[in-house]
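Hi C.,

You asked whether I'd gotten around to modeling the 471-residue construct. I have! Everything is below, sequence then structure, no commentary in between.
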Amino acid sequence: MLKHPLFTKLAALAAITVLLLFGLGLVEDVVRDRQRYRSLTAQSVADSLAGPQTLMGPMIHSACVESWDEEVGKGDERRMVEKRREFILTAMPEQLKLTTGAAMEERARGLHKVNTYKLKSHITAQWGSLASLLPRSTLKNSRMHCGAPLLMMAVGDARGIRTAQLVLGDQALPLKPGTFHPTYSRGLHAALPESVRGKADGLTATLDLELVGTERLSIVPLGGNTEVLMTSSWPHPSFAGRFLPSEREVSPEGFSARWHLSSLATTAQAAIANGSRICTGGYDDASTQGEYAPGGTTPRDCADSFSVAFVDPVNPYTLSDRATKYGVLFIALTFVAVGLFELMQKLRVHPVQYLLVGSALCSFFLLLVSLSEHLPFSISYAVAASACVLLLAYYASHMLGGLRRGVPLGAGIAVLYGLLYVLLQLEQTALVVGSMALFLVLAAVMVLTRKVNWYGLSKSPRAATAQAVAA
């Protein structure tokens, strides 16, 4: 091995690379830990304030019981036993219009911030015939008993309800907590007079609701025709669920979105009437959870809904995690650049010097995640990158024997940091930009080393001297 110093150095560089990869892994663990802490912070805020909210309703329901007498037994043991069937009658609105505005309120736990919102909604629901609230016997001579019709509005987390006012026609009705629905229990309700049951000309109800929640709002399109208008000062909405807005405007001052949905396009009415779950995960997920969905619920078990998430696009931990994934490429390209200087300028760089250069590159990612907890991500990136570039340029000037060699190396590393920042800002085109940049780097290395005698580099110094004497 000592007879071939090139192989010895390559082995040392390989060991150094493995050591640096271990260091990058530790940095990634730190980023994941901070992400977990942020998730715990969001959960803590939700536990103290209110979680993600879901609006479902208004709708009218009435709990009914059908009972009948049935003879059981034989001979002298025959007797009459009362049997019963419990069921729920529901009336869905034919027209549902919801106008809502979301005012953002930032909450913090230590260093971590969570987006919460205060929702002010005006909901108008119109019913046609209420014949669906009339109970129908399934057996002859059975007895029917139904509770009072209840107009209910279900929410994801009832702790978030601040104020609510209900007007039925021209009459204000008192609202009470809970829905008395076996599936959608959280929310509010108002008892309706028995006279509305089977009413042919229908009725109209308006509900003004003030609600607070955390990070996401979901809505179930329960009307025969559902129209939703949502506005907010938050400039980074993420629309999800089964339906995207038919119209939307997003600007730095906020967003406005409108949904127009028909019952011909959604099975929400039938799903809610059958007690289906309300889920908040993606429709294509293998399993999903929500306010009314236990773990393991599949998308087929869920009623249709759509949602808006008030996301922070500059999540420092997400961006830091993406940046750390490029750490191996940074180390490789920097080692290639130092190796080229060593090769083209006939220099000798010790493996320890490679280790120090790689350690400086690794420290960048740790600086980035720590600074981004206190400063905006762009400023944190600029500070961390500038510090590492200046340090590496200064060290390279001594390692490579002068400013003429150290400054170009520092400039090259600065270009790498600039390229990485661009890649972090891109989402759809990050792969193509990164691939093109890597190809250009490879092309430059091939052009610069096109005349290098690689076999000559692998000869021992004694063999090279003997060959020179013989020549």
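If it helps when you're writing up: Residues 5-38+316-459 form one domain.

Thanks,
B.
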